[in-house]
Amino acid sequence: MMIDPPIDKLIKKAPCRYALVVGISKRTKEILSVEKEKALLEESGLKAVSLAAKEIYEGKIKIITE
Fold it and tell me: What total number of domains does the chain contain?
């Protein structure tokens, strides 16, 4: 089974693994709570976590630390 996006490349999009997990988790919650986002989820055929990871990998969502 191949993970897309590749986890080793996805880790480079965040300052640390913890920040990556938190970022993916927060984006997943947003996707599941907004009706417009749910439609995007149905169109893509991905699960919410996969869509969140893909958006971070593609640079659509940036993880920031405060």
Answer: 1
